[in-house]
Amino acid sequence: MLKKLLTGLLCLGLSYANAETIKTDVLVIGGSASGTAAALQCARSKVKTILVEPGSWLGGEMTTGGMCVVEGNRNLPSGIWGEFRKHIRDFYKKTPGFDTTVNAVLRFEPYTGAAILRKMTDTVKNLTLKMNTPWTTVKRNGTGWEVTITEQGKTNTIKAQVLIDATGTGDVAAKAGAQFSTGFDSRKDTGEPLAPEDAIPVIQDITWCAVLKDYGTGTDHTITKPAGYDLAQYDCLKGKDLLKMVLGGRLPNNKFMIKWSECANSYKASPELLSPENREQYYKEIRLRVLGLIYYLQTAGNLKNFAPTDEFGTPDGLPPIPYMREYRRAKGQIRMVLDDILNPYNRSSKLYRTSIAVGDASPGQHYVDKRGPQTPYPPFPAYSIPLGAVIIKDLPNLLVTEKALSTTHLVNASTFYPSVQMVLGQGAGTVAAYCAFFKTTTQKLNVRAIQGELLDFKGYLMPFSDVPLADPNFRAIQQVSATGMLHGIPQVNGKTAAIRFKADTTVTTAEVEPVIKEIYTRAFLWFNKVKPGEQFTLGNLISFISEITLSEPKPLQAKIEKDWQATYKFKQPFDMNHPLTRREFAVLTNKYLNPFARTVDLSGKLIN
Q1: Three-class SS of residue 282?
Q2: What pTM does this model have?
Q3: What is the per-residue pLDDT for 263?
Q4: pLDDT (0 to 100) of residue 19
Q5: What are phi and psi of 585, to 5 degrees?
Q6: What is the β-pairing status of strands 106-107 and 69-70?
Q7: Are strands 266-267 and 255-258 parallel, antiparallel or unpaired?
Q8: I need a surface site. Which of 197, 401, 434, 598 has the fewest CB within 10 A?
Q9: How far is the C-alpha of 358 from the C-alpha of 338, rounded, in Å?
Q10: Distance of CA 512 to the CA centre of its chain
Q11: pLDDT at 5 over 60
């Protein structure tokens, strides 16, 4: 008995001896689109970062999940997302039929997307990847976090100042104690006119994508008939042109993404079905249904030459994970509601001022459950995502992305999209890096400093599709517009609305006066004295700059006149009576008044 006890204690001692405690500045759990971008940004911001991913690929649903036809944010190539897009285009530019247009829908093979992301992460210092590494527990450690992982059979502990939950399910935040909401929010709860009167416990469907390859006419690659196959389950496809549907998901190299609705490969989702206790079993059932769909296409559709590839490395050839649109939304420091997208400038809160990401994906509405109503969205504009939506309320230094982002159901219908999430991940990484670098917490953030870092790394704050990164005035336009002085202008195109800056249109006094008065206390006196006309002129701006900066008017005017074309390259001749264009106003205001330096809180309110 004593011998057995001593042997047990010895084994336990060896186990503890082999365990390792690893310290890092930022820990990102989940190599999703957002998680990969967050880790990249943290490392580029020169803080020590670890990225833990239970699988073998980076990219989440758009690689490991096979959702590799990406439409959203193609006109907003912000930061790391724009970098990824360029790498994909460069890789396929010599592939016959590949659309290399700058804003084309992005189509790529899942393995290629994952490999490009891996190469991007391999080129930065300060970043350690831990692939094929599950995490097990999470707990607070002062203002930081402590997470256990299973690595090469050992249970190791990671201690981090900041933790980012970039999983598609929000499991890390849930174990950490975050509170969540799910399903359709009620109108009373959110104040959204388009929300249902009462909450509805329904979430969007999940889709298990498939990637098929055309092995050539006359070949037969019919898979084994799946267990439980029932022809009647695919009745909704009767009479449809299946070949045309398959070809609609074209990828490079004769591959095709299958992401269909109705009875095809989209399935009911619920918090119960997706819970950690039930998820694995439900996924098994869904995979069989997807294999049934492929078998149906090959037999009933006579498409025997289309079959799964082996790129995912799974026994059945299907992606390892599903494409999940919705699960549970964390209660954050700020909750983003639909009016923050539809009416950002006409609200008491000014969340656009705290933007760390932009998006333009059309809202999805996929409900097998008939209790889920179709929301009559107006033409959906591009938008900014506020910083406070990634911060978990009452849990310092814990950030969330993906479906756990603090939004309403109606907003999540757009923000869940992988390309939007990659942009958001970079923003979340910037927040985490700020906390780590300055050894502070998410309760003491400098919004403008974080946004400035994001701009340094080519991120967008405002969703202007007509001011590219290459524009020499990009930063000035982004910074001045982030104060609210100049508003984005919607340009409706069917069900969507691009947000334009329209740099060459003239500035009106009515547009800039409210925010100028909000920022500068002496502005009331100046407006009462000068009484500028309907159009705000160059003379008006020089007079106001002189008033606020206490600069002598004549030398100031001479300096601006000297730089007008030599430095700023403005098109119009220098003329004090010239009505300013939005570009001219942004550049000069940014240079001489720097309103972006005015501190704001997480609601966008100016702080004195």
Answers
A1: helix
A2: 0.95
A3: 84
A4: 82
A5: -60, -45
A6: antiparallel
A7: unpaired
A8: 197
A9: 14
A10: 30
A11: no
Distance from C-alpha of 560 to C-alpha of 215, rounded to nearest angstrom? 66
Kindly report the three-state secondary structure assignment for every residue of 124-182.
Answer: CCCEEEEECCCEEEEEEECCEEEEEEEECCEEEEEEEEEEEECCCCCHHHHHHCCCEEC
What average pLDDT does the segment 27-41 reach? Answer: 98
Q: How far apart are CA 586 and CA 511, in angstroms?
A: 13
Q: Please, are residues 331 and 181 in contact by the beta-carbon 8 Å criterion? A: yes
- Give 174-177's long-range contacts (Cβ < 8 A, gap of 24+): 174/328, 175/137, 175/138, 176/138, 176/139, 176/140, 176/145, 176/392, 176/395, 176/398, 177/395
**Residue 596, H or E segment:** none
Buried b (16+ CB within 10 A) or exposed e, 444-454: ebebbebbbbb
Nearest by Cα to 202 from 216, 189, 183? 183
Determine the Cα angle at 355 with ends 350 and 361, to 5°. 105
62: nearest Cα among 122, 120, 116: 116
Q: Which residue has the tokens 């990969």?
A: 36
pLDDT for position 6: 42
Give, to the nearest 10 degrees, the angle between helix 474-481 and helix 582-592. Answer: 80
Residues comprising the chain, all counted: 608
Q: Is 594 helix (H, G, I), strand (E, B) or coil?
A: coil
Three-state DSSP at 119 gives: helix
Give the separation between CA 469 and CA 538, rounded to whole angstroms.
26
The helix/strand/coil state of 460 is coil
Pick from 5-14, 92-101, 138-147, 430-439: least confident: 5-14
Q: Determine the Cα–Cα distance for residues 501 and 467; give it in Å rounded to an integer.
A: 7
Rounded Cα distance between 68 and 510, Å, is 45
Q: What is the pLDDT of residues 67-91, one digit of tens each?
A: 999 999 999 999 999 999 999 999 9
Contacts of 514 (CB under 8 A, 6+ apart): none
Cβ neighbours of residue 335 closer than 8 Å, sequence gap 6 or more: 190, 389, 406, 407, 408
Supply the mean pLDDT for the chain: 95
- The 10s digit of each residue's pLDDT in 229-278 is 999 999 999 999 999 999 999 999 999 999 998 888 999 999 999 999 99
Place of tokens 């517009």: 481
Q: Using one digit for the tens of pLDDT, what is the confidence trace for 549-587? A: 999 999 999 999 999 999 999 999 999 999 999 999 999
Spell 280-309 as b/e; 16+ CB within 10 A means b.
eebbeebbbbbbbbbbbbbeebebbbbbbb
Q: Decide: helix, strand or coil at residue 287.
A: helix
Q: Three-state SS for 340? A: helix
SS3 (DSSP) at 107: strand
Predicted pLDDT at 262: 80
Q: Which residue, among 34, 42, 90, 31, has the nearest Cα to 64 in the 3D structure?
A: 31
- Which helix H or strand E contains 443, and what residues bound it? none
Q: If DSSP codes are grouped into helix, strand and coil, which group holds residue 252?
A: coil
How far is Cα 529 from Cα 546, in angstroms, rounded to an integer?
14
The residue type found at 211 is V
Residue-level pLDDT at 10: 42
